[in-house]
Amino acid sequence: MENVYFEEVHRAEKGYPYINPDTGNLSYVVHFHDEAEIDCVREGETVVVCESGSFEAKQGDICLFMPGELHGFVSRGENNIFVMKAVVTGAEGQEGFLDLSKIRLLKNVITKRDAVYQKLLSYVQDIQTEHAGKKPGFEYAVNALSLSAFVEALRGVGFRAVTTKQSAQIAESMKLLHHAERFVEQNYMRPVSLEEMADYCNFSKYYFSHYFKKVTGVSFFYYLTVYRLERAMGLMKSTNHSMTEISYQCGFGSTRSFNRLFKKHFGVTPTEFRDQ
User: Fold this and answer.
1) First to last CA, the chain
2) Helix, strand, coil content of the chain in percent (nearest 5)
3) Is 53 left (phi over 0), alpha (psi -120 to 50) or beta?
4) What are the pLDDT digits (tens) for 166-184?
5) H or E segment at 105?
6) Radius of gyration for the alpha carbons in the chain, expressed in angstroms and rounded
7) Could you write out the DSSP letters of every residue in 44-92?
8) Cβ(181)–Cβ(231) below 8 Å
9) 30, 91, 104, 250: which could form a disulfide with 216 (CB 3.0–4.6 Å)?
10) pLDDT at residue 27 above 70?
11) pLDDT bucket at 86, cuts 50 / 70 / 90
């Protein structure tokens, strides 16, 4: 079973992180967001795709990403991952705070072999406990623990500044993802072609196809299909529309292909999902 989530769906608030302590079989299409992120592989394993390369993350490993850092996950088997995204900023109106969007940690995947691991794991566990228990003042505790975890990572893992060249490459990748997301959001309901998408980005079809795969790790049509499936899932939750109506509203050519792709990605048929 494979779940693909888009950045817009899971957002942290300024005063409280986005936390999902029990995310099963997670695959993120390569994306970026304004929050800093901590992920802990509770069970199984996954492949982390980020600006510095691709790395295996196994049970117990902790993954960290700075704001604006391109990253994603490719899960090939069963796993369970704790996910936390937090808005980490300096005090309002004050200068001199370290801008996390302009730095990158020297390691994205922290394992038991790293000296900082036990402290980071302790923070993650305490965040989970506070978030689940919701005792008076838990919001303050979660925010304090989140900030402490990122400080521990900066000091224990080390970091480097994003170079001018890297910043330009990242900006170009972000621009591509923004264009792709905007185009898909506006056109997923109908048949679209690679030529249309490439023209929208002012690229040739062949260059766009290669560049998109390089940035995201998946093809454009995979990205489009998953986007449609997410929209279909949303309609199943919020409406009483028939599966035929939903499949066509979300750009699938037939209910047969919709059913096949839905089960491939989510492990259940659309009908089984709605009946859950």
Assistant:
1) 15
2) 45, 20, 30
3) left
4) 778 877 887 888 888 889 9
5) strand 103-105
6) 20
7) EEEEEEETTEEEEEETT-EEEE-TT--EEEE--S-EEEEEEEE---PPT
8) no
9) 30
10) no
11) very high
